Amino acid sequence: TLKRIIDILGSCFGIILLSPLFLIILLLIKKDGGPAFFPQIRIGLHGHKFKMLKFRSMCTDAEEKLKELLKFNEKSEGITFKMKDDPRITSTGKFIRKTSIDELPQLWNVLTGDMSLVGPRPPTVREVEMYEQEDRRRFAIKPGITCLWQVGERTGGLWEIGDRNAIDFKEQVALDVRYIQSQTFWKDLWILMK
Could you write out the DSSP letters of every residue in the chain? Predict the structure, then answer.
């Protein structure tokens, strides 16, 4: 399909173009100690599991520490986790998370076909365990590196860019469903530009 062709071309172009940045980030993360990449099991198309890549932005035992930090979750519904000044984030991690550079290794996931450039963000196994049936509508298409709520587009405004942290889980699902029902090549291109 056209979307898959765009995904292949876009991910190849992105990997080649950004390879110097990748090298710099790899060196900075290695300076913090531990592996440069953080592979994590995520849930994708039709509920299938896959290994999503990110640049590691947290300490090496971040998954274990999450259990202790859940009580500080700023997201009231408890499905997704957000904490201001999360102590698990490394010094390099603060920068690469703020700029979303930590997400760039997912270009490889797009190239291999587990993800798309644009689509609902792939949730963790822990998050899906708390899903209601209606939340699973997000699995109707491949997950993406970015989506409507990632760019803060809530009302469908052409120039709208907002704070994604202000969007709660139920609204994320609603925005993902809206995207699934109305996706077009031009809409994907506009989301990528945002």
Answer: -HHHHHHHHHHHHHHHHHHHHHHHHHHHHHHHSS-SEEEEEEE-GGG-EEEEEEE--B-TTHHHHHHHHGGG-SSTTSSS---TT-TTB-HHHHHHHHTTGGGTTHHHHHHHTS-EEESPPPPBHHHHHT--GGGGGGGGS--EEE-TTTTT--S--TT----GGG--HHHHHHHHHHHHHH--HHHHHHHHH-
User: pLDDT tens digits for 72-101?
Assistant: 766 666 566 777 777 788 889 889 988 889
pTM over 0.90: no
Residues 43-55, mean pLDDT to the nearest whole number? 96
